[in-house]
From TrEMBL:
Transmembrane segments: none
InterPro entries: LysR_HTH_N, WH-like_DNA-bd_sf, WH_DNA-bd_sf
Source lineage: Bacteria, Pseudomonadati, Pseudomonadota, Gammaproteobacteria, Enterobacterales
Name listed for the protein in its UniProt record: LysR family transcriptional regulator
Entry GO MF terms: DNA-binding transcription factor activity
The HTH lysR-type domain, residue ranges: 1-37
Protein origin, superkingdom: Bacteria
């Protein structure tokens, strides 16, 4: 996983105020969002 993708995921989590919401918005599983961070 590249650092740019991980940073985008992190920013989305902050904006959405949660991992599940960010995962839904990005079309990813909550587990992959957690792994990215």
């Amino acid at each position: 996983m590249n650092e740019l993708h991980a940073l985008r995921v992190f920013c989305q989590v902050v904006e959405m105020e949660g991992f599940s919401q960010a995962a839904t918005k990005m079309g990813l599983s909550p587990a992959s969002v957690t792994y990215s961070i």
